Structure formats: C-alpha cells, structure tokens
Amino acid sequence: MKYPLLIVTLLRLYLLQMQIQQNVSLKPYNTFGLEATARFFVEIQSVEELKSVLQNSDYQSVDKLFLGGGSNILLTKNFDGLVIKINLKGIKKISEGDSHVYIQAGAGEVWHDLAMYCVEKQYAGMENLSLIPGTVGAAPMQNIGAYGVEIKDIFEELQALNLETLEIETFKLNDCHFGYRESVFKHQFKGKYVITSVTFKLNKVPNYKVSYGDIQKTLAEMNVTDLSIKAVSDAVISIRKSKLPDPAEIGNSGSFFKNPEIPKTQYDELKVKFENIPNYLINETTVKVPAGWLIEQAGWKGFRDGQIGVHARQALVLVNYGGGTGEQIKALSQKIQASVLEKFSISLSVEVNFI
Fold first, then answer.
1. Residue 143 in contact with residue 179, Cβ under 8 Å?
2. Do 173 and 139 fall within a single domain?
3. 64: CATH
4. Which H/E stretch holds residue 174?
5. Helix or strand or coil: residue 289?
6. Residues 265-296: pLDDT tens digits?
7. Which one of 86, 106, 122 terminates a domain?
8. Exposed site from 103, 136, 203, 309, fewest CB < 10 Å?
9. pTM of the entire structure?
C-alpha cells in the first residue's frame, strides 16, 4: 500500500519527535569524557530527518549544537538547547578517471574508517591522515592535517545544508578558504551551515609524503624497503599511538593548540636565546614553531592538577584523567598560553571549540 506524501511526512515527523530526548548526558559524546547535560538531544540518520528537526516549531527558538565525533570540543557547561548528533553515513565512489578517483562520504562517518577504506582500496592521498579522531563532517571545518598533508590537498567539494533556507548547497575548494586549521565554516559561515557530505579527489598513483616528522625513521624501524600506501599509513598510526593518548583510556581531544606561525625575524631573535628551538619554514618570511616544544620548555609537560593535566608524552595534549571539568581544562589552557607568551612572546591559539 502506498501512502500519500503528506501522511509519510507526518509519520516521519512524529517518529522523530519521539526520538528527541530530554536532559541527556553528553559524556559519551565528547572525547574529553566531560560530564555535561543537553536539555534536548536527538540523533539524525538522514538529511530529511535533519530538515524535519529544524522545521519543528517546538525547537526553532532554542540554541542548537551540531555534534560529530565530539573530538574537537570542550564542554564547559550544560547546553541549554538542542544537541543534534549527525550520523549521516555512507562511503561511495562517485567517479573515476585515468589518474584520480572521487570518493564521497557522509558527514557522520568516522574519519579513520574512511582513511582505512581508502588505504584498502589503494586510493592514495589520505594515508598521512590516518587515526585522526573525529568525523568526516568536521574535517573540512578544521582543515585537519598531519605529517605534511591537509584536507585541502585532497578536497574536491562538500555539500552543506543552509540553516536558513534548508537547501543543500555545494562548496568547491576555493569556496572554503582553507587555511591552517581554518575554513570559511569557522568564521563568516559559522552557525549558518551543517556539512552533510564531503567528496575527496584521491590519486591512483601515490605521491608519498614521508619527510615530515618521524615517518622515515618509523618506516626504517618497520623494515620497510618498498613504500606503499599501507606502509605509510601504518607508520603514521604507530607514531600517533606512541605520542597521543587513546581517548577511550584518557579523556583528550588530541592537539589542543595550533602550532603558531611567526615572522622569521622574530624566530631569528628567539634562536639567539633558545638555540634548539625547532621550526618549519612556511615561506621566506614566516616560520611555524611546534606548540608542543614551546609548552614543554615552559615547564608544563606532565603537569597534573587533580583530575586534569598535560600529557606526559605530548605537551600539546591536555587530558582529563576522570572527573575533571571543562572549566578546569579551560583555565589550565589559559595558564599555559600566558606562560608561553611570557617566555617566548608567542601567542598560542586553541584548536578546540569551547562550548
């Protein structure tokens, strides 16, 4: 029996309304493992469900928080509004040419699952981004990157729901204004769109990037003589596991701070006082300095205050040992920023979003 479209729509709205919960703990939905409560909470599985929630008159006037993997947020208080957990799934090949293949993934897909899918299929370009926490939808917002590769290097386009018109719009590479952990969605379009899917342009013939960090050293330790996509991915995973704590064991969001970019003239002055200060040359006038090194030199590596602290192996990572609060972690981050500024005259910016 076929139901009229109106009846089907009303049935979907009713079922979705039944799924909206009240006073839900967000502890399972953030990698810091912080306790906070959402006044309303719903998980959506399709763009149609997302539109239905946003059209629901009962919730149009309340604040909304769109949640992916919860790996890039710091919950500092309860959320007095509606939390919408994006569970849009699906990975598929859109098209294929002589040298490239185009893969589209739903915003709710786990990033590492997508990376492993591409590694298994021998689609090159994503292997350096293995084991980064979070979901596909959050990746372009941050222009996530690791070991010499950023999203912008493999990005084709994304689709996003305009929260005002409820229409799906397509954003190409130049539309996104990608920068270092930056995109248009963190600034002028913040709070105006929800990313629903992302399409990536991957290579059939690998162009390996192994000069960044400890990749070459790790490949040698693994006795890799013939490079492969999987070997590079395995090396990156090994490095990340050795340096970064597993959120399932210790609450954290990975890198808490961005690596600051400073004028080369300032770096040259610092080099006189701090001979071992490392750097990555961005261009003739700009140098990137590892934030983890700055924080460690300021004496914070391994610092612990009750149930929060700075990770013992990686000073770039702030941790919740269990029972800490977002306000405590925020306060610690501010102390670290002030300390680094005083010692090096360098301002650290955070990667995570404070809620």
1. yes
2. yes
3. 3.30.43.10
4. helix 173-176
5. coil
6. 998 999 899 989 988 888 889 989 999 999 99
7. 86
8. 203
9. 0.84
